[in-house]
């Protein structure tokens, strides 16, 4: 029991905030962060689409193993992996329970296993790219591939602002806890504590939205001061922004190695 209590004590607001900050700002130390974002985004597009059309269990398992290796190279934080595992278990688990409820048997586990592998490949590919690359590189890669500048910037800005919003949410929540009063008795299975925190989450929603609007306005004013609209609509500014992108030998080796592994995998499967 003491071991379980110590394990759950690691999941705090400070810990989650640290993991999010490390995901958004600490991706420069990953091995894949040195690759060209254009090639890595095309690589991700393949693994986001092709697994849905594959039915071979061998091919899906090989893809999943390859994604696990690339996720390790991206140095993804444990919090992101935990959220992924909980999502997969919850999504596939209730489907298996429903299949048993409507007359299915253990044989329905095989299609669900294939679905789990497909979801795992797509999810791990997303984590590999969006956790292994800096948000600015992702934005530049999308812009170089012809994605509208407004969309690529919005993706980068949303990725950057997430840890900041979580910090704002934490401050609002702590202020309500400081001025409020927690239940003196937790009740059966601590239900009073759960209701108390649910109320705090509802109360913190509107101040968080106001703080988000304020930060967004400040960001827009700062961007306009630095000529963001001009750079958004002029090819010369876009060319200057993307001048640092270039394919190198490590990009060719990574894409060639991935293609060779997939060719061997499909041949075996």
TrEMBL record:
GO cellular component: plasma membrane
Origin species: Paenibacillus antibioticophila
Transmembrane portions of the chain: 41-67, 79-102, 108-130, 142-162, 193-213, 252-268
Top-level lineage group: Bacteria
Subcellular compartments: Membrane
Database matches in InterPro entries: ABC/ECF_trnsptr_transmembrane (IPR003339)
Keyword Membrane: yes
Predominant cellular place of this UniProt entry's protein: membrane
Keyword list, A-Z: Membrane, Transmembrane, Transmembrane helix
A Pfam family it matches: CbiQ
Annotated protein name in UniProt: Cobalt ABC transporter permease
Membrane topology (UniProt): Multi-pass membrane protein
């Amino acid at each position: 029991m003491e071991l379980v209590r110590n394990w759950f004590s690691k999941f705090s607001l400070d810990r989650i905030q640290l993991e999010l900050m490390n995901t958004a700002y600490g991706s420069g130390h990953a091995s894949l962060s040195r690759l060209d974002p254009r090639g890595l985004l095309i690589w991700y597009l393949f693994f986001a689409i092709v697994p849905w059309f594959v039915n071979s269990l061998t091919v899906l398992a090989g893809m999943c193993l390859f994604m696990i290796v690339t996720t390790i190279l991206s140095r993804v934080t444990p919090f992101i992996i935990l959220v992924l595992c909980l999502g997969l278990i919850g999504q596939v688990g209730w489907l298996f329970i429903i299949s048993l409820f409507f007359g299915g048997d253990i044989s329905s586990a095989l299609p669900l296993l294939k679905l789990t592998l497909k979801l795992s490949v797509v999810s791990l590919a997303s984590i590999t790219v969006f956790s292994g690359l800096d948000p600015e590189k992702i934005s530049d890669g999308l812009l170089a591939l012809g994605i509208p500048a407004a969309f690529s910037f919005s993706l980068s800005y949303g990725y950057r602002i997430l840890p900041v919003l979580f910090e704002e949410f934490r401050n609002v929540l702590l202020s309500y806890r400081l001025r409020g009063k927690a239940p003196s008795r937790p009740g059966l299975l601590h239900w009073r504590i759960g209701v108390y925190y649910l109320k705090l989450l509802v109360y913190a929603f509107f101040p968080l939205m106001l703080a988000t609007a304020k930060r967004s306005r400040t960001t827009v004013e700062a961007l306009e001061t630095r000529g963001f609209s001009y750079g958004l609509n002029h090819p010369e500014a876009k060319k200057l922004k993307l001048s640092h992108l270039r394919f190198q030998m490590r990009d060719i080796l990574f894409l060639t190695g991935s293609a060779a592994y997939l060719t061997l995998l499909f041949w075996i499967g």
